Amino acid sequence: MLDTASRAAGRQRSPLRRPSTPTLVNAGVIALLLLVALLVLPQLLSLYYIDAMTQVAVYSMVTLGLGVLVGRVGLVSLGQVAVLAIGAWVAARLLFATAQPYPVILLEAGVATMVLGTLIGLPALRLRGLYLALITLMLAGALTVMLATVNFPNGGHGFFGYNGSAVHIPAIRRPSIASSDPAYFRYSVIVAALMFLLAALHIRARPGRAWAAIRQSEPAALAAGINITLYKLWAFALASFITGVAGGVMAGAVHYLYSINFPTQDSITLLAVVLMGGAYSLWGAIVAALLLQLLPALLNNWGVSADWLTILFGIGVLQVLTTAPAGLADQAPKDLARLGRLLLGRLRKLTGSVRGSQ
Amino acid sequence: MIEVDGLTVRFGGVTSLDGMSVTFERGTCGLIGPNGAGKTTFFNVLSGFVRPAAGTVRAFGEDLLSMAHFRRARWGVRRTFQTEQAIEGLSVFDNVALVHEHSTLPGRTRRQDVFGAISFVGLAADPSARVHTLAAGERRLVEVARAVVGRPKLVLLDEPAAGLPDEETRHLGEVVRRIPGYTGALTILVDHDMSLVSACCETTAVLDFGKLIAVGPTAEVLRDDHVIRAYLGTADV
Amino acid sequence: MPSWQDFQPFIVSGLALGGAYALSGVGIVVLYQATGVVYLAFGAVGAMGALIAWSLANAGTPGWAAWLVCVLFGGAVTLAYGMIFGPPLARRDPLVKAVATLGLTLVLFGVMDLLWTTNGGQSRAITLPTDGGGFTVGQVQVTWTQVIGLAAGIGIVVVTEVFLRHTKLGTAMRAMANDREITATLGVPVRRVEAAAWFGCGVIAGVAGLLLADLVALDATTLTFLVISSLAAALIARLRSIVVTFLAAIAIGLIHDLLTPIQSLTNYRDMTPFVLAAVALLVLPRDPVITRSREEI
């Protein structure tokens, strides 16, 4: 037995370096989708749908952040919309107060949100599953109330930058290279792609492996020497950063921000679509964003009430939870992402058989 | 060498460990006792999952209990669990590398050390295979590989052969016997399989109701009247 | 800083509100103890019941019948949810069970907005006959509804304590809270006890829905998320003690309403339950044992 193992080990000179066929196919599909999004969609879609797809790009980052927390680490946050609001607030304030270039502002919004998210997350991380989720709900609720009073910056002065009596409110500016709606859509897709890359890099490296251990069994993770608090904080920091950047992109997308656009129930629908799209896979985040922002736009266009979607999402949550055998972050969930995976699998088999015949 | 002195653990009204004092010198030592005797609790104290109400543990001259739990693994405490806990979502290689990369060991030697541990336990599976695709026996071997990679000082094995067929139990026994030689670590084996314990351990300690009732060369301990009584539960001989 | 006289009416309204919160909080705690489910849909169920009662009353149904329908609706929906989704999720982590009730919340929320949309700008209100009459304490008017609010809170605590300690069903529920599996082996009809717990909690939700619709507002969103205030009280009690839930709920109601006349803080008074719950959660003692969770979230 020992000989075969060392022989196998010898053969496997770099099991992790050489990109395997599934990874190449994955990369190919991603590149293709990006090209379609950047080049084809802006030409094809009307402004109404460009706007919806920009929201999809923004929310795909939010669902990405929540997906990392829920799917990779096993932490449920019921307050991500409040985090998005913080990012949007910081970005709006800086956009009005300074003339800094857009990417810098996005970074600052991300970092500020990250710092806040980490500070708030630190004491909360002592709590287990249910209590952690509930405290995020409580903290988000508190933030929402504060936001309703403080309001979003609208070009006013002072720390809060809110002018309550202004008649003409200036619009939040956009980057000079992306001021039109189609151009801003491309801009948001690129930012989203960068955020996905950031998350993917984390998942493939040490944090991702530590998170996998923590999610399955905290004692096993501790026994392996993993500092659980540190890695949970890291996950919170990453999710907050990404969501903060998303808030910044949203500020430019909508031009005018109102606290009523960030209600508590959105955090719940957010969790619902993340579960339905598949919390574990990065593709699931995109599916979730499409559910959250494209479907309502479609329904609205067809004259169907968005309430049907809320009902659908509620049923979706119940379906996912009762059928997913291993939990919320099932790696082979019986949900929409599975369809995508099936298709990808077919593609792989196709390319595999093509290679085999060469 | 591990010196345990007056270790006491209480959970509510139950005293799981009652003033346990024992010294484990070197090599592979057995820790046996009927169910509920406190063996896993003892391991949990060593791993840092449970805080004792009283007592000290000195391992290789250092106060183990004052270290934070995740730091103990870095220091050199490794363990396997009663219900096998290899991380399903990761590959075999990543599972073993996990321990290595969270220790003080240099990254340069990681691949070498990991492959070394995998071949030491005799795991023939593809190192890049996901653990959830492996059979129970192979997953146990992954756990043991994680316990021996790098330079562990203390290896705790909690019923590593539980639920495995004879052939795999025998193989595990051979692996366990070679651990002190391969790693230089002190190994403590908890198990109910007496043939495994006899085959692997030079000395054995026996726990019953949280108290140490015997310690010494394995063959003698297994013949001891008190030990037999503890397992059979008879008050009179 | 407002004067003592300015505060007085808010003491009364705060106590009434706190009583209603206590009613909800106790319902949540008892159900959690019996089934391990944090019933986050509690508010939505009460909201929909209140809206149904409003529609029925508008259509000419006598008041008491409309309220009865509301209460029965609460019980029926909650019982149905418990019987359908309870068993498949019974062994899962409490977090999973709680998130599942969020699914129910969304469904109810969507249905409410469909059937009783607020897009027309119309606002609805529930008036209970007890709104009219009342008495005066010092210089403050107290309506009977407010008395009922506080009385409901006190009453549910007394009734529940008696029920849990002195009835067979209540003892069975306490046993189940301790260990469901062992209780089943003792011959206790676990399913039936659970059904009773679900139905009872649903009935409480219906009553709380009516009260809060009267005391606060008859608005789907407001009532659905008002559960968070009651939940805050339950969390302060660590989802365990009914008396602490009551005291916490009264405190939340009082502090919330007492902040109303204070100009500098009035805008932030809705933060009260969130802040109190967050502080209480963070001050919880650390677990002495790290439990293994093979149960993924």
Description of the structure:
Chain A has 358 residues and is an all-alpha fold. Chain A has a domain of 218 residues. Chain A has 14 helices and no strands. The relative contact order of chain A is 0.16. Chain B is of the alpha/beta class and 237 residues long. Chain B has one domain: Rossmann fold (3-Layer(aba) Sandwich). Chain B has a 6-stranded mixed sheet with strand order 6-7-8-3-9-10, with helices on both faces. In chain B, helix 4 packs across helix 5. Chain C is mostly helical and 297 residues long. Chain C has a domain of 195 residues. Helices cover 70% and strands 3% of the residues of chain C. Chain C has 11 helices and 2 strands. Chain C has a two-stranded antiparallel ribbon. In chain C, helix 1 packs across helix 9 and helix 5 packs across helix 6. The relative contact order of chain C is 0.21. Chains in contact: A-B, A-C, B-C. At the A-B interface, helix 1, helix 8 and helix 9 of A face helix 2, strand 6, helix 3 and helix 4 of B.
List descriptors.
heterotrimer, A: 358 residues, mainly alpha, 14 helices, disordered N terminus, B: alpha/beta, 6-stranded mixed beta sheet, 4-stranded antiparallel beta sheet, 9 helices, 38% helix, globular
